[in-house]
Design brief:
By secondary structure, the protein is α+β, with helices and mostly antiparallel strands. It contains eight helices and ten strands. The protein folds into two domains: about 170 residues, ATP-grasp fold, B domain (D-amino Acid Aminotransferase, Chain A, domain 1, 2-Layer Sandwich); about 60 residues, ATP-grasp fold, A domain (Dna Ligase, domain 1), CATH 3.30.1490.20. Strand 5 and strand 6 form a beta hairpin. The radius of gyration is 18 Å and the shape is globular. It binds adenosine-5'-diphosphate and magnesium ion (MG). Belongs to the D-alanine--D-alanine ligase family. It is an enzyme of class 6 (ligase).
Length: about 250
């Protein structure tokens, strides 16, 4: 089966488990990796366990007043507040101060009672496509305004995508590739995946999250990255299919 689904049930291990029980091979990551990548906090714990750089964070439970928002001690503004499980930047916002934090927590809580407060990294945003454990060319994501939120992700013209990231030091690009591939393995990913990064002012890379079902439309990032590596779309599709058999 080719899984082309996003979010709950499709991307979080549920459909993967169903296919597993039915004995049908399927594309992409297995049950555990799919569930882990859907949970940003568990992903970050695995990054940290593996010695991989991810911005400092706290996990909050909005429905437990004993927990939030005092639980951000040790972090300083600006922060990113996000629901633990979701995607497409839904419920994600940047908080610059205590007032902003209140608003950001309320927005995230609409999506999930479990929320992540993460130190903001100010700098360039990069995404690394990984196919069968191999890093493909990096893409820089440059929203014209603000961060890569829902609007900037899905409105044409709001964000520039640059392959390769202009002027990026080769050693930095190599390091991002190594960290990304290590993250892919730490999370147990399979087949195609995409790992999101921020670079800080010193060009040090920080892992944000991994996506186990990257978009595959004409405008999506993974196919562009594959094309830059000389892998046309039909070959990418074949390799994704082959990954289903290699696990089965
Ligand atoms: N710690 C952070 N520092 C700076 N920007 C961030 C941080 N966390 C998230 N962002 C911004 O928010 C966007 C969405 O966050 P992300 O963790 O990738 O969640 P999603 O699963 O919704 O894509 C990122 O692409 C980035 O632009
Ligand atoms: Mg993301």
């Amino acid at each position: 089966m080719v899984i082309a689904l996003h979010g709950t049930y499709g991307e979080d291990g549920a459909v993967q488990g169903l296919l597993e029980v039915m004995g049908l091979p399927y594309t992409g990551s297995g049950v555990a990796a799919s569930a882990i990548c859907m949970d940003k906090a568990i992903s970050k714990r695995l990054f940290a366990d593996g010695g991989l750089p991810t911005p400092p964070w706290r996990e909050l439970r909005i429905d437990d007043p004993a927990h939030a928002p005092d639980h951000i001690d040790g972090l300083s503004f600006p922060l990113f507040i996000k629901p633990l499980a979701n995607g497409s930047s839904v419920g994600v916002s940047r908080a610059n101060d205590a007032d902003g934090l209140k608003q950001a927590l309320a927005a995230a809580a609409e999506v999930s009672p479990r929320v992540l407060a993460e130190q903001a990294i100010t700098g360039r945003e990069l995404t690394l496509t990984i196919l069968d454990g191999e890093a493909l060319p990096l893409i820089e994501i440059r929203p014209k305004e603000g961060f890569y939120d829902y609007r900037n992700k899905y409105t044409k013209g709001c964000t520039e995508y640059l392959i390769p990231p202009p002027g990026l030091d080769e050693a930095v690009a190599r390091r991002v590739g190594e960290i990304g591939v290590a993250a892919y393995h730490a999370l147990g990913c399979h087949g195609l995946a995409r790992v999101d990064f921020m670079l800080d002012a010193d060009d040090a890379p920080w892992l944000l999250e991994a996506n186990t079902i990257p978009g595959l439309t004409e405008l999506s990032l993974a196919p562009q990255s594959a094309a830059a590596a000389g892998i046309p779309f039909d070959e990418l599709a074949e390799r994704i299919l082959a990954s289903a058999w290699s696990r089965a």
